[in-house]
Amino acid sequence: MFGGAYANLVRYLYNELDRGGMAAFIAFQAREDIERGMSYVTGVAQGYYLLRWGWVLQRLIDTRRGLKLIEQALEIGQGQDRQLESQALNNMAAVYRATGQPKRALELFEQALPLRREVGDRAGEATTLNNMAEVYRTTGQPQRAVELHEQVLPIIREVGDRAGEAVTLNNMAAVYGATGQPDQALEVLEQALPLRREVGDRAGEATTLNNLAMVYRTTGQPKRALEVYEQALPLMREVGDRAGEATTLTNKAIVLYEDLNRSQEAITSMEQAIAVLVETGLPQDSFGHTRDEMQHYLDAIRHGLSLGQTIGGSDIMPSDQLQAVLSNTITVMTTVSERRVEGREVIVNALQDAQQHGADWQIEGEFFTAVLAILDGEAPVLPGDHPYAPTLAKIQEGIAAGRLEDYDTPQDDDLPFDAELISRSIAALSGGPQEKMVHGQYLAAMSAQTTDEEMKALLQVIQLGLFGSDLSQLGQNLSGVYREAWETIIVGVETGGVDPRLFEMIVQNTLVVLGPAAEKRSEWREALTQIRSQAMEGDAQELVALLDEVIGLLDAGGNQDGLGMNLKGAYARTWQAIVENLPSSK
C-alpha cells in the first residue's frame, strides 16, 4: 500500500514537473518518504519508480543520484520491459546532453531509437529524434539536425502530440538561428509559443520565451529581448529548471551590459547565474555556458571590457592576481607597514613589466602607477570610468577601515556552513513568493546533504520564516554559531540587507575614537562620511539617519544630548550599544 501510493506520487511528479512549481515543491517536501518508498516496490514497477524519481531528482536536486537511479531502472528494464528500457536510455542520454557530454548522449539516443520503434511508441520515437537533432545542432551539424526535425513533424502530427509539435518547432528555430536565419526562427517560435501554453507546458513556454528573446536581440531589439527574458525567468524558477534559469540569467546579463549599458544590473544577473551552477553542482547551463565562462563574462563586465576580450591575457589581469594586489596593498598600508618598501618594489616591477608590453598593457600601467601613489602617501589619479577604478576604490576603502581597530566578528572561515546561506536567506526573506519558493528548494537540498542536526535545525527555522512566521519568535532552540547566524539573518531582513558586521564596526570604532584613540577621530569621521555617501546612493535612508547621529556624536565629543531620538530597530540598538558604553568622562 505504502509503495503503491508513492509510486503514484512519483508518476504525478514526473508528468507534472514541467507544468508548474507545485510538483517541484512537493518533491522537495516528500523526498525522504519517496526515497523510502523505493524499497516497497519490486520488479518492473520498481524500475519505473526509479526512472521517474531519478528524472525528478536530476532536474531539481541531485544530478548524480538522479542519473544513478535511471541507470538502475535501465538494468531492470533490460530483457523484461522494452518500453522501460527505451525510456531509461532516452532519459540517461538527455542528462548526458545537459551535462556537456554530447557524444555519450548520442550513443544512448541511438540505442533508444530502435527500441521506441520496436514497441510502436511513435511519440517516444519523435522525442528521441528531437533530442538527437539537438545534439547535432549543438555540435555544429545543423543540416543533420534539420533532416531529423523533418522526420519528426509528420510523426507528432500523426499522433496529435501538440506538446511534441511545440518542442520540434522550438528546436527548428534554434537551427534557423544558428544558421543565420532569424526571420524563420522568429516565425516558428511564434507558432510554438501558443502551443506550449495550450498544453500547459510551463517549462517549454519558458524555453521558447528564452529563445524568442535571443532572436529579438539578434534582430536589433534589445529592450524587447530583456522584457521576454524577464517573462521567462519566473517560469524557469517555478518549474525548477535550474539549468534554464542559469541560461536566462546569463543571456539577460549580456543584453544589459552589451546593449543597454546597465552594468550593475548585468553584474547582479551574472552573479546569480554562477550561483545557480554552484548550488546545483551543474557543470554548465542549458546553453552550454560553463561556470568558468560565466566568471570570464563577470570579470569583463566588472572591468568595463568587451565580453570577447580574454581575461588573464593582455586585456586585463586575472581576478586572483587583482585580488592579490588589492589585499597586499591594504596589508602593507595597515597591519604590516614595516613591509611597505617590499610591497612597493613588487608594484614597481609590475609597472615596468606592463610598460614593456606597450599599448596593450596601458590600463595596467595606469593602475600600477595609481597604486604606487597610494604606497607613497600621495593621492592616486585614475578616472572614474577606468577599468581598474573599482579595485582602486576598494583599496582605499580597505585602508581607511583597516587603520582602525579591528572588530570581533565571526569570519566566514569560522562558520560550519557556507556563509552564502546568510545572504541568500536575507534576500529570500525580504523578497516575494517566487524568491521564497526558490530558496525553500535550496534549503531542502542543503538539509538533505547534511548530517549536522544543529544545521538542520537552523535550516528548519529559516524555512518557517519563509512561510510567514514572526522571525523574532523563531530560533529559540538554536545555540552557538547557529543562533548567531539566525540573529544575523533577522538583522539583515530588518535593515534591508545591510551587512550586520557594519553595525559592529560602527559601534567598536566609534567607542575607540571617543576613548583611547582620540587622534583617529577625524579619520573615522571621514570613513563614516564615505559610508554615508554609499548609503545615500543605495537609498538606505535608515542607515543614513544612524550615520548622521554617529557623526553628530563625534562632532560633539561624545555628548549624546539631543541625538539618536528617532532611530528604530537594529539602528536604535546600534545607537544604544554606543551610548551605553561611552567613556564616563567626555
Topology:
Elements lengths: L1 H15 L4 H9 L1 H7 L5 H18 L2 H15 L4 H17 L3 H17 L3 H17 L3 H17 L3 H17 L3 H17 L3 H17 L3 H17 L3 H18 L3 H18 L10 H12 L16 H15 L6 H17 L5 H14 L13 H14 L17 H11 L2 H17 L3 H14 L13 H15 L5 H14 L7 H17 L3 H15 L13 H11 L7
Describe the structure.
- By secondary structure, the protein is an all-alpha fold.
- Among the domains are: 201-311, Alpha Horseshoe (Serine Threonine Protein Phosphatase 5, Tetratricopeptide repeat); 319-402, no CATH class; 418-494, no CATH class; 500-579, no CATH class.
- It has 28 helices and no strands.
- Helix 1 (2-16) packs across helix 4 (43-60) and helix 14 (242-259) packs antiparallel against helix 15 (263-280).
- The radius of gyration is 28 Å and the shape is globular.
- It starts with a helix and ends in a 7-residue tail after the last helix.
Distance between the termini: 77 Å
Quaternary state reads single chain
What do the pLDDT scores average to? 80
CATH A-level architecture of the domain at 201-311? Alpha Horseshoe
Q: State the share of residues found in helices, binned by percent.
A: over 70%
Supply Rg: 28 Å
Pick out its properties.
single chain, 586 residues, mainly alpha, Serine Threonine Protein Phosphatase 5, Tetratricopeptide repeat, 28 helices
